[in-house]
From TrEMBL:
Record-linked PANTHER family: GLYCOGEN [STARCH] SYNTHASE, MUSCLE (PTHR10176:SF2), GLYCOGEN SYNTHASE (PTHR10176)
Pathway of action: Glycan biosynthesis; glycogen biosynthesis
Domain of life (superkingdom): Eukaryota
Protein name according to UniProt: Glycogen [starch] synthase
Gene3D superfamilies: Glycogen Phosphorylase B (3.40.50.2000)
Entry GO terms, CC: cytoplasm
Coiled-coil spans in chain: none
Length: 709
């Protein structure tokens, strides 16, 4: 589902459409990944959301290649006959040779064509192909590594597909874009067989980097010191590492998703990326002004209902002055920064208490872990809340009936007689039912490994047990959110919209879709300068904090200093007034254009241009641009009211359904947004593409690329 933004602010200046003049009729694009129509991780989101833009650019000459997984095909793919006659002959020939290759449309936005290869059907060729891999590349794949075995099968089959396609020379120019090491072997084989194919390899996270960070090493300060072969061998992933490194070196163009990952790849894979291709999202605009603010209020009300039930009997704080923070993602306690977040929450709790703050912070941890069922006490809380609601409705109906009858006879009601003894009895029973002897639970589920769970052990150490004296409460939801859940019936997108701040202090995060999704939905977030998203925002925004993007320094500071900085961010956010939070959300949402594939897709376009120029130099010419002549563009500090409590002027946001205001002044959001747009400096003009060499020399002034050849 595409995320949405409001028309209350129009597209940022400087993001005009790029006038494309390159003739794609003589070229075909194959994009190859293990996660095509097969959700495993974040690469699925990248390919799925980018498909619409790429399909619009390439039309009938764009094909995604992935594995055939029957359970996924049933719900995601419409199998059809190949529409391209050359591809149809290729698929028919492979099927006649003992393969199973399927063709269809992926039922996502853009409806791209997909070629799905059944790797299990050709498992009989595994030993032969592994022997060939050893003879060609000296890479041996152990029999017990099923994932690597699948990569071998998938690689040989994709190389077979591209080889058959090239035999017909129609169209004459083929671009093959491979994602991650699981698809990388196909690229290596294409280059070894000298197929006339322009190849691109994108690594979304290096294998060795992920393993090293999971082992709690000082990763970024020792990047240049690692003995990569030894480290990969010690972790029994040397064969995988070799496949990844071979693909990176064989590709015409090597790309990564962020600058921080580019530095990592340069040291671990021993090749500097040619292009950085940031990940984007499909941003769908709302038709109503301030609608995203209203959606925030609606979702926040649903979270408040859950909180009322979860904290029944201990609801001694004001929900109107309650802030919802959250962290979400894979359960990697250190890599995702959950350890730092918990420590910062303990310090924030101390600051709020000593400053006698009336703000209460509820921090949600949405990280899937091993459980066996919902916590009985948590379910009981929601049942008690519902019972109280039903009791209130019953008393209200009885009260309303008596009031109606009194007014019918023309008399003012006697308030002392409106509620009888039975009404008081019902209400007293309801109040007694809310009494609770234990503290509200930390975890919403029964954990299978409660005693060794990292989050729960850290909570025990810092002593945040949801007591009445604590100003910071913790709720650990070890399961992905779902609208069908009996506990918290909300989808992830709806939950994010209802929160006030996303906290993602990751130590290892090649890109970071979670803070990007927050930005598109107008929710401020905390990221780090070790995440791709954080580095991207630091590069493009002069003052990210003013736009609700807090960048935590985890690269040049120690753990304790980083924790203090995170605590400071959280404490300053708690000091903001409601009006200031509304202004900040408006600003955050304004950045959604920057994360739209309409803009970020241009980096992928440039990578394909560069690959064509390298693979077919007689037809296409690449002329690198002098990087010193351009400086890129950065969004300056907003011209509108700053969010800092100390610098706030006397003006209030325009009234909306989102949140009631305590002040009477009005804030003209459209006027303030226009000030910000005027204040944004126009960037350099985007380059254009030409045709063939005999018609016009292709000159790509890739001034916006970070990495040169």
């Amino acid at each position: 589902m595409p995320l949405a933004r409001s028309l209350s602010v129009t597209s940022l200046s400087g993001l005009e459409e790029w006038d494309e003049e390159f003739d794609l009729e003589d070229a075909v694009l194959f994009e190859i990944a293990w996660e095509v129509a097969n959700k495993v991780g974040g690469i699925y989101t990248v390919i799925q959301t980018k498909a619409r833009l790429t399909a619009e650019e390439w039309g009938e000459n764009y094909f995604l290649v992935g594995p055939y997984v029957e359970s996924n095909v049933r719900t995601q793919v419409e199998l059809i006959e190949p529409t391209n006659p050359v591809l149809k002959r290729t698929i028919d020939k492979m099927n006649a040779s003992g393969c199973k290759v399927y063709f269809g449309r992926w039922l996502i936005e853009g409806s791209p064509y997909v070629v799905l290869i059944d790797v299990a059907f050709t498992a009989w060729s595994l030993d032969r192909w592994k022997s060939e891999l050893w003879e060609l590349c000296d890479i041996g794949v152990p029999w017990f590594d099923r994932e690597a075995n699948d990569a071998v099968l998938f690689g040989f089959l994709t190389a077979w597909l591209l080889g058959e396609q090239n035999k017909y020379k129609t169209p004459p120019y083929v671009v093959a874009h491979f994602h991650e090491w699981l698809a990388g072997l196909g690229l290596v084989l294409c280059r070894h067989r000298q197929l006339p194919v322009a190849t691109i390899f994108t690594t979304h996270a290096t294998l060795l980097g992920r393993y090293l960070c999971a082992g709690n090493v000082d990763f970024y300060n020792n990047l240049a010191e690692f003995n990569v072969d030894k480290e990969a061998g010690d972790r029994q992933i040397y064969h995988r590492y070799c496949l990844e490194r071979a693909a990176a070196h064989c590709a015409h163009v090597f790309t990564t998703v962020s600058q921080i990952t580019a530095i990592e790849a340069e040291h671990l894979l021993k090749r500097k990326p040619d292009v950085v291709t940031p990940n984007g999202l499909n941003v769908k605009k709302f038709s109503a002004v301030h609608e995203f603010q209203n959606l925030h209020a609606q979702s926040k009300n649903r979270i408040q209902e859950f909180v009322r039930g979860h904290f029944y009997g201990h609801l001694d704080f004001n929900l109107d002055k309650c802030l919802f923070l959250f962290i979400a993602g894979r359960y990697e306690f250190s890599n995702k920064g959950a350890d730092l977040f918990l420590e910062a929450l303990a310090r924030l709790n101390y600051l709020l208490r000593v400053n006698h703050s009336d703000v209460t912070v509820i921090a949600f941890f949405i990280m899937p872990a091993r459980t066996n069922n919902f916590n009985v006490e948590t379910l009981k809380g929601q049942a008690v809340r519902k019972q109280l609601w039903d009791t209130a409705q019953t008393v209200k109906e009885r009260f309303g009936k008596k009031l109606y009858e009194s007014l019918l006879v023309g008399q003012l009601p006697d308030v002392s007689k409106m509620l009888d003894k039975e009404d008081f009895t019902i209400m007293k029973r309801a109040i007694f039912a809310t009494q609770r002897q234990c503290q509200p639970p930390i975890c919403t589920h029964n954990m299978l490994e409660d005693s060794s769970d990292p989050i729960l052990n850290c909570v025990r150490r810092i002593g945040l047990f949801n007591s009445s004296a604590d100003r910071v409460k913790i709720i650990f939801h070890p399961e992905f959110l779902s609208s069908t859940s009996p506990l918290l019936p909300m989808d992830y997108e709806e939950f994010v919209r209802g929160c006030h701040l996303g906290v993602f202090p990751s130590y290892y995060e090649p890109w970071g879709y979670t803070p990007a999704e927050c930005t598109v939905m107008g929710i401020p977030s905390i990221s780090t300068n070790l995440s791709g998203f954080g580095c991207f925002m630091e590069e493009h925004i002069a003052d990210p904090t003013a736009y609700g993007i807090y960048i935590l320094d985890r690269r040049f500071r120690g753990v304790d200093e980083s924790c203090n900085q995170l605590t400071s961010f959280l404490f300053q956010f708690c000091k903001q007034s409601r009006r200031q939070r509304i202004i900040q959300r408006n600003r955050t949402e304004r950045l959604s254009d920057l994360l739209d594939w309409r803009y970020l897709g241009r980096y992928y376009i440039s990578a394909r241009h560069m690959a064509l120029a390298k693979a077919f130099p007689d037809t296409y010419l690449y002329e690198p641009h002098d990087p010193t002549s351009t400086t890129g563009f950065r969004y300056p500090r907003p011209a509108s009211v700053p969010p800092s409590p100390a610098l706030s002027r006397h003006s209030s946001p325009r009234h909306s359904e989102a949140e009631d205001n305590d002040e009477d002044e009005r804030y003209d959001e459209d006027l303030e947004a226009e000030k910000d747009r005027v204040n944004i400096r126009q960037p350099y003009s985007m380059p254009k593409r030409g045709g063939k060499k005999q018609d016009c020399v292709l000159r790509w002034h890739l001034c916006f690329l970070r990495w040169q050849i």
